[in-house]
Every structure is written in C-alpha cells, then in structure tokens.
Amino acid sequence: MSAAADKLSNIDRTDTQRIPPGGTPGYRVASLRGGWQPTDALRLTIALENMTNQDYRIHGSGLNMPGFGALISLEYTF
After folding, report:
1. Does an H or E element contain 35, and which?
2. Which residue, among 25, 30, 31, 17, has the nearest Cα to 58 in the 3D structure?
3. 11 phi, psi to nearest 5 deg
C-alpha cells in the first residue's frame, strides 16, 4: 500500500518519463502466499500476487508493476 506521492520537487515535476504529471497515484495491492511441507525433504509453495490486477507504479521507478500472477513452487532436497 502506498499513498499518493504528489509533493514533488521542481526537478521531479519536469521528469514526466518516470513520474506522471501531478505525482504518482496511491495504490493498494493484495497478495496471498502459503506453503505445505509434508516431509523434511519436500515443500510446496503457492502464491497469488496482485490479486485485484491493480495497475500501479512504485514512485520514481518509471515502470508499471506486473498485474495478477500465480506461482507454484515444488522444492525437493536430498
């Protein structure tokens, strides 16, 4: 979660490639991650990221963050 970043320096106001005019809007992103380890050697992890598919940008990064994503990981150690 981030509040709007709209208190900009004069330099940031002119940097419209990285920062939208008026500042970077605030956002809320919900993610869920969980796992299960049935044995000492086996672990399963599942994650749902940006579950609302929110379009957002970390202030000053110049890149929009990815939308919804699902990850599944199976780890086996020996």
Report:
1. strand 32-39
2. 25
3. -65, -45
d(Cα 15, Cα 17) in Å, to the nearest integer? 6
d(CA 38, CA 56): 37
Q: Residue 50 pLDDT more than 90?
A: yes
H/E stretch holding 36 reads strand 32-39
Residues in the chain: 78
Cβ pair 50, 65 in contact under 8 A: yes
Confidence of residue 62 (pLDDT cuts 50, 70, 90): confident
Alpha-carbon span 78 to 63, nearest angstrom: 40
Q: What is the pTM of this model?
A: 0.70
* pLDDT at position 19 over 90: no
